[in-house]
Every structure is written in structure tokens, then in C-alpha cells.
Amino acid sequence: MSSVPTPTGRAFRFGDNIDTDQLAPGPFLKLPPQQLAAHCLQAIDPTFVSTVRPGDVLIAGSNFGMGSSREQAVVSLRILGIQAVLARSFARIFWRNAINLGVAALIFPWTEEIAAGDEVEVDLAAGRVTDLTRGARWQVEPLPPQVLDMLAHGGLIPYLRRRQSGASSA
Amino acid sequence: MTLVEKVIARAAGRVRVRPGEIMTAKVDFAFAHDSSGPRRWQPYLEQLGTGVWDPAKVAIVTDHYVPATDLESAEILSTTRAFVAAHGIRNFFDMVGICHLVLPEHGLIRPGAFIAGGDSHTPMAGAFGAYAAGYGATDMAAIIASGETWLAVPHTLRAVWSGAFARGVVAKDVMLFLCRTLGLDNAFTAIEFCGPTIAAMTMLERMVLCNMAAELGCDTGVIAPDAVTFEYLRSRGAPVADESAAAALASDPQAACRAEHRFDAGALAPQIALPHSPANSVAAGELDRIRIDQAYIGACVGAKLSDLRMAAEVLRGRKVAPHVRLLVAPASAQTTQTAIAEGVLASLVDAGAILLPSGCGACAGLGAGMLAAGETCISSTNRNFRGRMGSAQATVYLGSPYSVAAAAVAGRIVDPRELLDGVSGEPA
Q: Which CATH architecture has domain B271-420?
């Protein structure tokens, strides 16, 4: 099996109840994904899109991704290179969409202890989060095996394709 | 077991299920709209090399980009129609209203069904005693290909309502109140609405409760099927074959639930949610009389026949304030037809309302009715997230159709009862 990724990058911090209209604003939904991503979180942090780099990690409060079922909320984060979101809790549809598209969404209760800009490593397989800047480490409940397997494949569709080919070659 | 657990157990082929258990369920009915459906599924189905698992169990409704306002919208609709034709999907409803209302109007939402919808307001179908949850496009593509999905069995919250509402207080006020009281962070739970107040509600008002279970963050909202449910489905030419079996879906009296909240309907006042969250609700009378630019009656939750009737009660014989634009987008073509026959639509137009096409429209920042920076809107829709209806510098207040219509007349947000005093009316 492919290996589970270990996203490592700088922390970007956001508050509670970040909704899907902040991640993928309704009036821009018809735009091609790359252009839509340029509006991600702009109403809260206008500098986010210009400063985020691949591997960076979002740290948020409770109920991250509430609102619409629009998958563009995750697609935009993925285009910007976000591989992991740590939050105290997630909205159900966002959480499923994230896993389905290969973005790790991990419940993490200590979001206040990581400062914006800290270098963070997220070992998904072990459920271990390390703040490399501060040398602090936390252990969380790892994601269920089926979910880790999906992330290792890059999402639900590649995962199902692998299962199909596995079944036909068996 | 609770109602939700009974539906999931049957769909998963289990004798019983418990909250937190992860399992695979067979989907009885799947639907999506033009935004979340075919245009997003097609690439996935091609990658998987599969078609639609059972076209008879799938419905497609165009409601987001209707009618096309530009080339992109036209292409999205064209893709949707081509997909429906190619896959032999007969339950196709093209520009006749919003999916969450059109499907029950056609008798397609059945008590006890496991329903997957490609839209976050799918829980509205739970008003019929179905387990109805929203899914993103990738999940939906996998469901369309296989007819099944995985889930964690949700915990059940019970909201028990007793007593009668005061004049001018309706289901929408209940939900704005619950968003404040229960918060929006209720993932992996289902909310069940019950008690004498709920039993006395019409199906259209029950749909409001279950629709906004989405705002609570619940997987779904449900109401046990009863005589009101069965009568609605009979009136739609789709009677329930075994009503006693459907009624037995009701939660067992001893079934465990995570929490039970009891409320007195008689104590509830009209509620207004302040920007930018449905949880920011207060009693309308406690609010400063905020001046508005736009009043919007629209969306699955807020432009059904019951909602247009409420607006007409307020607007009949009155005029919209000169500085306000009142936009009305009836939620379905059938809603429009009945509202014409009843004279409801004439009351709205006479008062100065501007009619818009049936569809999701301005609620989702689509079509006509967007807001400019600095503008203030009161809306009968379900979400007032920053930027959703246009500019991120616009502000949106949420209220019942009574409250929206009253604000349109007063030019300011008021307690709608100020305008209902002396106006006779039957409950919607």
C-alpha cells in the first residue's frame, strides 16, 4: 500500500465556525478551480492566499467547514497546497469531503498551543502532531484505518480504483 | 432504537445498530442538482469505468444555475441534461423548483428511506421520517456508481416541543432559536423533533425544521411519520402502502438518546439572526429597528406555499417601503401555480414585490438579487454567512417570512406582530 503522508509546514490559524462561503465564496463558484482558490478565506485573511505554501497546515477552532456540501471548499485548500487541517471539531460533510479528496482533517484539541507561523509536522499514521518550532508534541486519536488507507491513495476515487483492480486481479 | 437507528439498521442489513458504529448502508434514493451532480460526477465515473447503479433510484433537479444567466451556467445545464439522457434517469426535474421541495411534491421522499443528497440541505427530507444526509460530489459519485456508502451511526438529540405558538411565530423562529440554544457544532448527531407542537404542524412547516438541522451541523433532522405525513403523500398521488409499518418507525419510548431538550412553543417570540451566523439570533422586539435595503423571500426553507402565504398576510393591502426592494423567488413551479390560484402572488406583486425564477438564486449568491458592499438585507433563507449573498461587506439578517415581509413594509427590521395585529389569518 502507498504510504500515509506526513504534512510539514507553517501553521496558519483560524477561529471557530469557518464556513464554506469563506473557503469557496458562492459568487465565485463558477470560476475554474485555480481562480476560485484565489478567493479562499479572503474575507477573513486577505493575505492568506499570497503567503500560503505547499505543506502548510491549517489550525482552526471548532466546527471547521460548516455550511454547504460544496467540495470546492476542499479543492481550493488542496490547490493551495494544504495537506492537513487540525481543528477542535469539523462539520461532517467537510470532513468527509476532505478525506475523499486526500486532505487530512484531524481532530486536535490543543489548537491554542500552536502559534501562527510555527513549523508543524503532522504524522497522520501515528496520530502525532509536533510543533518543531517549540519542540512540543501531542498524541491524538489516529484516523480510522480505512480513512488512512484512503489518504494514502490520495482520496476516495483512487482508493476505489485500487480496490477494483485488486479485486479483478485476485 | 431511535427512528434514525431503525432506518440505518434496515439499510445496513443489521438487526440493530448503536451510535458510533461504522458500517456500510445501501442507499434507497440518491439525488443531486446541477451544481453538485453530473458535472462533478462525470470525471469520477469515467475514472471508475462505471455508470449509474440504478437510474430508477436517482433523481436530478436543476435549481442552482437556472435559468442560465451566462455561458458558464448554460454549459452546466447542458452537461446536466446530457448526463440524464445518457444514463436513462427518468426522475429529472428541469427548472421546476428547488430539489428539496420538488422531490416531496412528486412523492419521491418516502418514510423509512435511506436518502443521499448532493446538497447540505438534504435533511429537509427527514420531515417524512427518512434518514436523509448531505454529501459532497466525490461521495455522491461513489454512491451513484455503487448504490452504497459508509457512515458512522449518529447519536440522537431530541427536541420536544409542547404548547401552541403565538400569532406570528412559526417553524423558522424555532430553528433560529435552536441555532442559538444548541449551537452549530453538532456533527455526528441527528436531531429528532417531537411533541404535541410538532404533531400539529403541516408538512411544509415540518420541512423547515428538518432543513435547518443542517445549520445545527447535525447529520440530519427527523420527524416520525404520522397521519399528517400520510395525508400529504396521498395528496401527492403517492400513498404509503403500509401506514402502520411506517408509523412504527417512531423512536421506541425507551430508546437511548444523547440529550433531550424540552421547549414551550408558547414562550417563543419571532427571532431574527444577526450577521453573520444563524446562531446570532435574538427576539425581533429586542433589536434596534435596523434599516434595510433588500428583503428576500426565497430558498428551499423560505419560499414554499406556506411562506408566501405568510408574506401575503402581512403585505395584503400594503406597500413595500420606497427605499426597499422586495424580491420573491417561489421555491417551485407548483408553489407559483397554487399561489396564483389563491391570490397570494397578486397580494405580493400589488405590494411591490419583484418576482424571480424558482431556484436557489440569491440565497447561494447565484442569479439575481446579489448585494453590494454596505447593503443590508433581511432574508427568509437559512444562512447568512459573510459574502454568501454577494459582497463580503454586505450584511444579512435572517427571519421568518412574516419578519421579512414586515421589514419590507416598515423599511426596518421590526417585530412582525406589529403588522399582524388586527390582520386575521390561519396558521400557515
A: 2-Layer Sandwich (3.30)
